[in-house]
Amino acid sequence: MAFSFIVVLLLTLYIGIYYFPKQTFRIFGMLAKPIVCLYIKKRIANGLEMKERVRERFGAPSQERPEGKLVWFHAVSVGETNSVIPFIKEFKKINPDINVLLTTTTITAASIVEQRLKDAVIHQFVPFDIFMWVRRFIKYWRPKAFFLVESEIWFNTLYYLYEKNIPIYLLNARFSDKTIKRMSIAKKYFKILPFKLFTEIFVPSSEMKKIVQDLGSKDTTIIPNMKIISPKLPINKKEEKKLKEMFSKRKTWMAVSSHKNEEEIILKTHKEAKNSIPSLLTVIAIRHPNRAEEVKILCENKGLSVTLHTNEHHNSELTSEIYILNKIGHLGEFFSTIDTVLVCGSLIPGIGGHNFIEPINFLCNTATGQYIDNFRDVYPYFERLCQKLANEDDITKFVIDSINHYKRPVVLKTEFNYTDKWLNVIKRISKAINA
């Protein structure tokens, strides 16, 4: 009996998605509400949601909508937020009278918005893709256009925007091989073409253009990844001076945006490199600050002394072996102080790498691991400026060689400037929005 019920349920779901996808996703979302609510409670308990603003995740606004036109940008986390900041700033220059709503999913991304775009945008946490929450959100904010950054696809949100004739743009479109495979299966068995709902999709390569066209894109434009035009991260000069004084007597390198299981590799590198450089200081900028205590305990269990950035008092006689940066928004000061930088998220498979352009902009000697699927379209432009390291021995050699021999050049010489191409895109979209 139970087996028959499951078969009927699955068959009904299949028929629903195949013939009535919009309605089926809406019903499925409503049925999933209790599970999502439990999930949100768990995220609050784990420090992944701001309890005082959690109503935003249900589509309930926490700020008043200003008068006039408004456009909506969504950037999931830190990487997407940093990449879209130049676009938003240029958009505001061209359209000073249009309000910008920027949503994020993570608290860390919200911190970046607060620091770098505080007066330029309205920030909200994005609602979960449940139809009634999405409808509440969109009815309140009434966006003239929606800009999605990089890779998230939410069917209830997209279908509702499309239904309301709100233009939808996908910026920096990039998808992992696993995601592309799943979307191809959805196309084959359910006839779902996720990209047919977009007004225009901006892709960084001809390879990605072919993929999104095959999955329904009607208007696709090849343009270099927005990360290429990212400006230097901001610097607090006072904090920079303190860091330079604190690190002045140490041979220092930095592993940035580290994830769980990558710190093991970093600490092994520290111990190996210390044999050649006794005064070595390793700075670990963890990707998620709420992991600080976990990483601190890992270091101490390996017999390494640790200082947390949020606990230190800028003692010029820093004696610990590991320094953990557990605060968002301070990478600029560290990149301007530390010459040798390893960009993580790339040392183990499954993450896809993080933005190596940020330290390159500061003329750091920059390296990344071999797992950089998120940046495979960008890396060829920066191959000369960023080493790709294949294993732990390569990492150790890079750290030792860089600390002993690297000197920052006066200026960074590059062969590319794609700012004008993106400016032309912004002007063209602005004209359509203002029409």
Describe this structure in words.
The protein has 435 residues and is an alpha/beta fold. The protein has 2 domains: 50-224 and 423-434, 3-Deoxy-D-manno-octulosonic-acid transferase, N-terminal domain (Rossmann fold), CATH 3.40.50.11720; 237-405, 3-Layer(aba) Sandwich (Rossmann fold), CATH 3.40.50.2000. Helices cover 44% and strands 14% of the residues. The strands form 2 sheets. Strands 3-2-1-4-5-6-7 form a 7-stranded parallel beta sheet, sandwiched between helices. Strand 12, helix 14 (357-361) and strand 13 (365-368) form a beta-alpha-beta unit. It is globular and about 65 Å long.
Structure summary:
This protein has 435 residues and is α/β, with parallel strands linked by helices.
